[in-house]
């Protein structure tokens, strides 16, 4: 018998049907494994709020200009529009000085600085203002968390804002808030001792001085990405820092071999349009994403195999200007969608035709740069605020209005009691008394455990 030649273990573990028979062989030949359908990347959708091009009226149409020259003129007009006016700069500086004074009153030993795009006027009119608070001795995450909540209470008590969101779970904990209308309705991000961005301010400033085409290209690219909701690293987009580094690298490499005057004298040679299209073509079609990473410090692309700090082969990798082992591009999870939008924008420009009798709108029709109604209203609000004298004028707010409106029941009315919440104290601070655990036992004198849990930490 066939079963006699098989061991007892084989017979016990065999399937009900004979796995050695011809039926099993036929079934094995007919079996086709099902493959999972690969996920299709979501199509990038334009934000419908971006509809206006108010700078277009200042662009004079010329009969003999080509598309590249027309695009150059529109870029110049756009940059002049988004660059903050003297009035806007003054108002923004005054609001920041108020925020700075409030923080330094709470932490006298602190230093408060602006960094990021706003430090070089590379931010869009609706961009955030990044603030770093240098505070000696605050390195532990719990200490940073406490300081951010202290900053939150101080800012609300000063009347600058009504609500502060402290994201202490983020990789870089920040306090995010929007100032009240009489303080300009500015968006702020405040961090504690995140000084890498502050150190990069000087480096980026030196590139802006030697690369006159850097600022116009960065401003257009940031608007291009923001229309498509691809300008935030938190959602997988390309951060402002990454855009700046990529643009610097493009100007360093000059992959299309443009004349040097086109890079050094873009206004005189009217080359901003050509530079923008070459940027979109290079990063959309020929950039070696899988094999190389961007190194602005060395001014070239280097193989990814030579850097042990790179974790993904098919991801964008950009060497940080301050910390060479920090990949500032790894957070761009939607890099393939971003590069595809660059490629599509270049194709659209190639198919665009100029009518001799009509003024073109390449930035608007090509969805390269537009602004929202909110941006127009914000700039008008800042102008009125600066001329009306209402800056820093505090509007009285009844902090107890929400609680008076709630129905107060008797002592046994549990539902009414559960709905009532006492108003938060604006002058309260969080101390270290809740630290019941002994972090780092036997760490010796001078450790953070040498402080009593009931003592208030002084910063």
UniProtKB/TrEMBL annotation:
<comment type="similarity">
    <text>Belongs to the DNA polymerase type-B-like family.</text>
</comment>
<dbReference type="GO" id="GO:1990817">
    <property type="term" value="F:poly(A) RNA polymerase activity"/>
</dbReference>
<feature type="domain" description="PAP-associated">
    <location>
        <begin position="271"/>
        <end position="319"/>
    </location>
</feature>
<feature type="region of interest" description="Disordered">
    <location>
        <begin position="1"/>
        <end position="44"/>
    </location>
</feature>
<dbReference type="GO" id="GO:0046872">
    <property type="term" value="F:metal ion binding"/>
</dbReference>
<dbReference type="GO" id="GO:0005730">
    <property type="term" value="C:nucleolus"/>
</dbReference>
<dbReference type="Pfam" id="PF03828">
    <property type="entry name" value="PAP_assoc"/>
</dbReference>
<keyword id="KW-0460">Magnesium</keyword>
<dbReference type="GO" id="GO:0031123">
    <property type="term" value="P:RNA 3'-end processing"/>
</dbReference>
<feature type="compositionally biased region" description="Basic and acidic residues">
    <location>
        <begin position="403"/>
        <end position="416"/>
    </location>
</feature>
<dbReference type="InterPro" id="IPR002058">
    <property type="entry name" value="PAP_assoc"/>
</dbReference>
<dbReference type="GO" id="GO:0031499">
    <property type="term" value="C:TRAMP complex"/>
</dbReference>
<dbReference type="InterPro" id="IPR045862">
    <property type="entry name" value="Trf4-like"/>
</dbReference>
<protein>
    <recommendedName>
        <fullName>polynucleotide adenylyltransferase</fullName>
        <ecNumber>2.7.7.19</ecNumber>
    </recommendedName>
</protein>
<feature type="compositionally biased region" description="Low complexity">
    <location>
        <begin position="442"/>
        <end position="453"/>
    </location>
</feature>
<feature type="compositionally biased region" description="Basic and acidic residues">
    <location>
        <begin position="432"/>
        <end position="441"/>
    </location>
</feature>
<dbReference type="Pfam" id="PF22600">
    <property type="entry name" value="MTPAP-like_central"/>
</dbReference>
<keyword id="KW-0479">Metal-binding</keyword>
<dbReference type="GO" id="GO:0010605">
    <property type="term" value="P:negative regulation of macromolecule metabolic process"/>
</dbReference>
<dbReference type="InterPro" id="IPR054708">
    <property type="entry name" value="MTPAP-like_central"/>
</dbReference>
<feature type="region of interest" description="Disordered">
    <location>
        <begin position="403"/>
        <end position="459"/>
    </location>
</feature>
<dbReference type="GO" id="GO:0003729">
    <property type="term" value="F:mRNA binding"/>
</dbReference>
<dbReference type="GO" id="GO:0043634">
    <property type="term" value="P:polyadenylation-dependent ncRNA catabolic process"/>
</dbReference>
<dbReference type="InterPro" id="IPR043519">
    <property type="entry name" value="NT_sf"/>
</dbReference>
<feature type="domain" description="Poly(A) RNA polymerase mitochondrial-like central palm">
    <location>
        <begin position="71"/>
        <end position="204"/>
    </location>
</feature>
